[in-house]
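Worked example 4.2. Below are the chains of a multi-component assembly; read each line carefully before continuing.
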Amino acid sequence: MKILLMGNPNVGKSVIFSRLTGTDVIASNYPGTTVEFTKGTMKLSGKRAEVIDVPGTYALEPISKAEEVAVEMLHEGDVVIQVVDATNLERNLYLTLQLIEKKVPLIIALNLWDEAKHIGIKIDVKKLEKLLGVPVVPTVAVTGEGIKELVSRLPHARISAYRSTDHEKWADIGRMIAQVQSVTHRHHTLLEKLGDLSIKPLTGIPLSILVMYLAFQIIRFIGEGLIGYIFEPLFELYTPLVMKISQLLGPGFLHDILIGTLIKGEIDYTQSMGVLTTGLFVPFAMVLPYVFSFYLVLSFVEDCGYLPRLAVLIDNVMHRLGLHGSAIIPMLLGLGCNVPGILATRILETRRQRFIAATLTAICVPCTAMLAVVAGLVGKYGLQGLGMVFITLFIAWVILGVLLDKLLKGESPEIFLEIPPYRIPYWGALLKKLWMRIKYFLKEGVPYVLLGVFIANVLYTLGVIDFVGRIASPVIVGLLGLTKETAAALIIGFLRKDVAVGMLLPLGLTMKQLIIASVVLTMYFPCVATFAIIVRELGVKDMMKSAGVMIVGAILVGSLLNLIL
Amino acid sequence: MEITLDELEIERPAEIKRIVGGFGFQRRIAALGLRVGKIVRKVASEPWRGPIVVEVDGTRVALGRGMAMKIFVEEIGE
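Applying the procedure described above to all two chains together yields the following C-alpha cells:
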C-alpha cells in the first residue's frame, strides 16, 4: 500500500513523515523545504506500507517544479493523508475539496493544533468530519501528539461523497468554516510584531544586515573555537602515531601516498599531502568544524522562519538578476553545499529562473567545505584575504546575473510567497537536522577528500600534473599569474574543491595568487557532485551552456584580478 | 472609493472588491486568501517598487507590485 502525505506548503508534512516512518527528512519553517518526494516505510496492521512525503502544493494546478512533482505523485497513492494547518483551515480546505474530487481515499491530519488553540482558534472536529465525509485527526507533529490516533484511523480513510463545482468551492468552504470554526478576537503577539518589524523596510533592512553580520560572526567564532580547542589538539595527539607509521614505512611510493612529504623532518598536516595526514586533517580539522557551525546557524534561521522575510527584502536586487526574492533560499543553501542548493531551485516557477539560479549558485557561491580551507589559507593575512574573495565573487555574481537576464529570452515572474509566523525552533528537531547534514558530509564528502588526496599523489608521481601544467601554462601563468603547479588543484577541484584549495598550501603562493586561485577554483567548474545534480535538474544541453559561462567567467575574472591587484 | 492594493496606505484595513487578470492568476492568489470580500491590511511596502506584504486571515503574503495593481480594494473604517 502506498500512503501519500500531501498538503499546503509549510504545514508540517515532513515532520509527520518522520514520525510515521522513523526516516529523517529535513524540515524547516518556510514554504518549499521539500522539493522532491521522499519515501519511507511503516508497519500498518502488521503489513508494510510505503509512505511518501510529497512537496507542498496549494492546489492541484502546479505553479513550480516542486508542485509538479506533487501533482504527479497523486496517481500513485492508494491513500492520501492531507496535512492541514489548523491555524489556516479555510485556505487549506481548498486542496481538501480538490483531493475529494479526485476520488482518493482521504484522511486529514489537522496539524499545528496547539498553535491554533494558542492563538484562539476553535475547530469542531466532529462536525468537520461529518461535513467533509472523511476522518479528521488533530495532531501536533513536532511533539508527536495525535500521531497514534492518526495511524489507528488510517484504515478508515475513505472516498468522500462530497461534490462541489470549481467556482462554488470557496463559497462552500466559507459556509463550512462558519459552522466549524470560531475565533476569539486577539491582539497581535510579540513574535507577530517582531515578524512585521523585520519585513518593513525601515526596520527590516537594518535588521537583515545585523542578522547576516551576527550569523557570519557566530559561524566564525564556533568554527575557529572548535578547530583551536578540539580538533587541532586531537591531531597533536595523533601525530606520534603517524610518525611511527612514517618510520615503519621508510621512504618510497607508499610513504608518499600515506604520509606525504615531511616538512623539516616533521609532519605538517596542511602541507604533507598524505592520505593519513592532510587527507584526514582537511575534512576533520578544517572543514567539519565549519560544516557544524554553518549548519547550526542556518538551521536556526530556517526554523525560526526568517528566510522568507529575507526573500522579500532582497526581491528587488534579485529581479535585476532575472530572479525574484525566493531565489535567495537556494543560494544560501548553496553556501552550505551546492548540491541541495541547486535542488532547491525547484521552488522557482520557470525554467529560465532555474537555469539562472543554478548557474549562479554553481559559479559564484562557494560551499562551506571550500570556504573553510580558503579561510585557513588566507586567514593568516587577516580578514582582508577572505574579504577580497567574497567581494570578487559577489561582484561576479551580480554582473553575471545581469548579463544572463539580458541575454536569455523571457522575463521573471513576480514573487508570490506566504510568510510563515516566527516560531521558536524546536531544539530536538533542529539538532536532528544538523546531524543529518553532518552525516551527509561524513558519508558523501570525506571519502572523496581521501580519494582526492590519493589521486593527486598518483597523478604527481606519474607526471600527469606536470604535463597538464605545461600545456595550461599560457592561461594559468600567463593570464592568471599563478604558478604552473596550480594546474594540479584545478584537476582535483573537479573531485573536491576543499582538497583543491588545500593543495595550494605547499606551493608558497603570495596572497594575491591565493586570492586569484581561490576565486578561479570557485568559479571554473562545479565539483562532480554538483555537476551531476545540474545535469539531472537542467539536462545535458543546459549544463553545457552553464559550463561555458563558468569557464569563460573564471578566466575573465581571474585575469582581471591579476591585472588589478 | 476603489483603489488598487498597490495604492493602499500601510496599516489601513481594506476590503477586496474586485480582482482583474487571468483565471490562473485569480485561482493562484485565491489559494493564499486573496479573494473578493476578504479584509486585508498592508503590512509593508518595499522601496523601489519592490513587493508588498499584506495580512489576510491572520497570515502574511508577499506579492509583486504588478499583482498588487490587479487587486482593487476599498478602505474601511473611515
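Take a moment to check your reading of the output against the notes. DSSP finds two helices and six strands in chain B. Residues 23-30 of chain B form the longest helix (8 residues).
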